[in-house]
Write a structure and sequence with these properties.
The protein is α/β, with parallel strands linked by helices. It contains nine helices and ten strands. About 40% of the residues lie in helices and about 20% in strands. The strands form two sheets. An eight-stranded mixed sheet has the order 3-2-1-4-5-8-9-10.
Length: about 240
């Protein structure tokens, strides 16, 4: 004889069996065929990211306010990198990395709202100030550079990543692997998965999901601590997340 408790238990077990198993967090999409644009690609960080991704086989376009300057930088980088003005770079790219200086961040994104509509945008800008005591974090009105980007680009899919990378290491052709993790933040897991996969294209690097954009400020501000570390130890420090 079956009791009501037995029936409820059986129903619960059957329902649980129907549920899909949890997704493997390391089962990331193939992004090798996507075009990556780098706004601010003539600066140190932008050049370094463009170089590493292109060297890994990614199609890369670097953007600048002046197309000629972007093309000159692209020619120096090689590996099939192209140069264009910022608007063309944004239009032609599937994923757009924002690596512009903080003081030009808002103005640049405002001017490209139409071109960036529908795009996956990866903000890696760190709002920092400097004085005689060294680097210190700034807090934008929106909370972070990434949240400012999201506010300015309502039709884009904004994520945050690539904050803690040494431009010196990225640009050094003698270094084969970049020993670091990349913290990736965003509102959509599908979008952060793509950015994690993009980071993993660079040998030695992993992309690690680190929360939603509301948590971007502390990730951006940690760069001030790394700058202090690097100055003290004459290093190019990065981050590794343990136990994942």
């Amino acid at each position: 004889m079956t009791t009501s408790d037995d029936a409820q238990s059986a129903a619960t077990t059957a329902e649980a069996a129907k549920k899909k198993p949890a997704k493997d967090p390391w089962d990331l999409p193939d992004v090798s065929g996507l075009v990556v644009g780098v706004l601010g690609g003539t600066g140190d960080q932008g050049r370094g990211l463009a170089y590493r991704l292109a060297r890994a086989g990614q199609k890369v376009i670097i953007g600048s306010r002046a197309a000629e300057r972007a093309q000159a930088a692209a020619d120096e980088l090689g590996h099939g990198v192209e140069g264009a003005d910022n608007a063309e770079c944004a239009r032609r790219s599937d994923i757009v990395i924002v690596a512009v200086p903080w003081d030009g961040h808002a103005k640049t994104l405002q001017s490209l709202r139409e071109e960036l509509a529908g795009k996956l945008v990866v903000d890696c800008v760190n709002p920092l100030g400097f004085d005689k005591k060294g680097a210190y974090a700034l807090k934008p009105e929106e909370g972070s550079a990434a949240e400012q980007a999201a506010a300015l680009l309502p039709d884009s899919r904004v994520t945050a990543a690539f904050h803690h990378l040494s431009a010196v290491l990225l640009q050094n052709p003698e270094i084969e692997e970049i020993d670091t993790d990349v913290m990736v933040l965003g509102e959509s897991r599908a979008d952060t998965d793509q950015v994690q996969a993009l980071a993993a294209r660079i040998p030695g690097m992993r992309g690690i999901y680190a929360g939603r954009l509301r948590n971007a400020h502390q990730v951006e501000s940690l760069v001030a601590n790394l700058i202090s570390t690097n100055r003290r130890y004459k290093a190019h420090a990065g981050l590794r997340i343990t136990d994942v």
